[in-house]
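#struct-queue
[09:14] JT: dropping the first one here, sequence first, then the structure tokens:
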Amino acid sequence: MDRRRFIQVAGTTAAGATLLSRAEAQAPRRPQPEGEVLRLDATSPHGEPGRRNVYYAFADLAHTIEPGDMLEYDIFVREDSPAHSASVDIGFTEGPYFRESQIQDQDGIPCHPAASLDRRAQGKWHRRRFDLTPLAGRTTGSFELAFANDVATEGTYVVFLDNVRIVRDGQVAADIWSEGPPDPAALVGSQILTDVSLRTVTLDAMDGPPPPLPVAEVGLTAAVPFTTTEDGYAEAPLVAAGRDGFVAATVLRLPSRQDQVAAWTESGQLTPLTAEPGSYDSLCAAGDGEHFAFCWVRNAGDRWTLDTHIDGVTEAIPETGPGRCANPAVDVRGDMGVAVAYEVYHEGGFHVRLVRGAGAGWEAPID
């Protein structure tokens, strides 16, 4: 027996790659998580049918694959998770994701995050290795911890990951992640699941609860008084995200003069949005990070109209039709423009109408 085959070689090459023994490079080793590991949490809020998935980026590294390259990582799916499917997915600079290749690991399990790891990574650490030779010539981009399944049940998924690397000819050719915070930590995509988070934990903290979701702190200096000369109150404030940050709006009930709708930005500037007489109700809001929109019902005597404030411009929606308008809902989607749905009560009848607006103005309502 040649003992040298089983002696791990310590140290690095001149290029800085870590050396592995021949036995270590040629066969799957036992998982060896240590120190810090990545923890992914996600909650299925209901038991309705539908695909549940999460793709969470934890590293971004350009590595051109060569024949013989092996992707390996240690993975653990907590036993009480509704399903035990998980994997590392790779986004390349060109072409489809790694999951579309259907490359199998040493146990014949596909690389797709929907492939079950029951009895392998269920409640225990498991090392997976994939021969990347069929992908030679492609360059990696993002590395994502992912899982997907069609299990229609409530519950919390918890997945742990460690020692993600690409091995070539007995050397670690690319150390993707082994410790430290994920960089970048970016939620690439998710369906149905809520409370999704990715963080670094130590091995002895693996049984801890999921972290609270980050919430921006707001100091008291952000509070803006709407009047200093009379009694009154603000009702039902709403917030939307625009190109220059968050915009909030509220209905002001002022006893000595007409109601107002007013908006303010993160700079603290309070701006009235209404000048027409009347009472204002049913304020709604939407924003997509580029454009924002507010909509409300205005009543002046027997006349009911819908007013909008879109990207800083206030106007009434024309041709809302006779009758009483109520309960508007607004949505904004970039080049698709703005859509408003609302109820109309007229001559004992009830209608729901949809009206769309874009750069060319408002279209005629649709019943």
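[09:21] JT: and here's the second one, same format:
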Amino acid sequence: MTSTDDLQREAWRPPEGFVPVRSGLPGFTIFAPAPPDQGDPDFVRVGRCDRCGGEARYDAAIGRLRCGHCASQREVAAVEVGRAASEEEFRVETLERAARGWGAERTQVHCESCGADTVLAARELVGTCAFCTSQHVVARPAPQDALRPRYLLPFQVDADEARRLLTEWLGSGWLQPRGLSKQGRTTSIQAVYLPAWTFDARVVAHWMVETGRPLSDESNITIWTKKDGKQAVHMDDELSLAVGDLSELLFSRIAPFDLDRLVEYDPELLAGWQVRVADVPLEKAWERQRLAWRDRPREEAWKRLKSQHAKLRRFSAAVDFTKESWRHVLLPVHVVAYRHRDETHHVLINGRTGVIAGQRPVAWWKVLALIAFAYMPAALLGGIGALAGHPLPELIVPVSLLAVVATGFAGWLLGTATGENDA
């Protein structure tokens, strides 16, 4: 049965050239002139409902664009390529021919507090930065000269599941202030595609070393022999976050991402989603990755040599990189920035697996109380000896052991408490 609202919606159409835009008033739909077309032939009109012209959002769960105005749906072909996704070589001509821009009209929002640049649907506006909660944001048309991602991982964890995970995680810590989980039910959660680079390379260490052996079984004289060789390590699909101000530690804690399910980039897959703009260029990210990999083959070569020879000296190795390649991808992450007692804390949730990592405030009175409780048995035994008028020999060892255990527990407790905010 068709309702009166449905009949009215079917009967009325906006004027030619007008499209719905996001409204801040619940129950009201606002129409505005459609933006002019772009000249790029690859530029497509995304996030637009074919039926009513309203805003549509890509729903990864059903693989379709869903209109928020008339609820109609349209299929989007997400071509899954996984780890077979092609990789680019480090050549000047490769970068010159790489596609630029988003392939669709989008708005870029710049945060004047933390400097984060986020792109979103062309007619969508936000008033708060997803990364620092600041309201000092400026919107402008997104530039179309940035290197275009070639692949992405669609979201699987929806907004409701992300909020459930956040609420449970905030309430799970036993060193946190009471009632912290309530913030999980009210704080803003932004689903954002984060840019990243994937790198492949064959890293080879050309090593030289002197190995020693005794002149004879009964001799203290060592005969040294020069040896050389090479040790190769193949690095495959190593992820490097392309955002400079986001915690690498937090990002590593929500890894891995199932790159086996990568799909080819299509502007329609981003309809209704926010995307963080990459601010770590390819060259800088690759140089950082090379530094991280440089010691891998050296360590492997040294470990192998140690297992074969009792004495080694003057070990050295020169490292070469070959078969270097890269991809530019987008990864799904729910980003949370919440404030507790005038301090901002960050949480990341893997948009594929639901793995969560972040910062939580610590109730230091709980930490101090637990440390005092840990030292209590040692203090009681020491007090018994003091009341006896002289130290009891049989209590010295237990008191010492309890003190050592309490000190270790206190150190672990302090490390756990401070580790909540080390990212």
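[09:30] RK: nice, looked through the second one.
[09:31] RK: Residues 35-45 have pLDDT under 50 and may be disordered.
[09:31] JT: good to know. DSSP finds nine helices and 17 strands in the chain.
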